[in-house]
Amino acid sequence: MASTVPVAATAPAYDRRLVLSGVLFGCGIAGSVIDLFVFHLLLQWHHLYDLSTPTVALVTDGLFHGVTWLLTVWGLFMFAAVRRATAIPWGRWAGAVLVGVGVFQLFDGVVHHKILGIHQIRYGVDLFVYDLVWIGSAILMLVVGLVVLWRTPRLAAVAPPDADRRG
Which residues, including other chains, have CB under 8 Å from residue 11's CB and lie 6 or more apart? Predict the structure, then answer.
């Protein structure tokens, strides 16, 4: 059965899904790999919620781990759906991933660290340098990702989902 939707009409929808998949993947990787694995587990500098007992801190880390991996997998499933429909402009997806990492880190640094104060990057040290690096790198990744997205062409045409793409 042939597609009844014009090819040009589907390209913006696939482009939005591609960008959203990259942002979700970036947020998930920033949370599950950069923050959780490095700062929570390897360095043991903080937990998601440090205002209670060690047991509560570990439980919140576990819930945080589950949510961030869910974001990662959700982003990958969306990416796979777009990939089945069309060729991927890798630069555009990489820009969206950088935006996701930057958004996560900026939210974590501003909301969790500064506004809510549920944890800091590290304890027993002057936080200014740590906050500067954490929030500064978040802004840098967000800006670089947005520039890459802005400069990378959007999906212009999409093969219909039922097209034979073997050849």
Answer: 86, 154, 155, 156, 157, 158
DSSP string, 70-135: HHHHHHHHHHHHHHHHS---HHHHHHHHHHHHHHHHHHIIIIIIIII-S--SSSSS-HHHHHHHHH
Nearest 10 degrees: Cα torsion 83, 25, 74, 5: -40
| CA atoms of 94 and 145, how far apart (whole Å) | 8
Interval 12-34: pLDDT, tens? 889 999 999 999 999 999 999 99
The residue behind tokens 């990378």 is 152
pTM summary value: 0.85
Q: Which residue has the tokens 């809510």?
A: 116
User: pLDDT tens, 124-149?
Assistant: 899 999 999 999 999 999 999 999 99
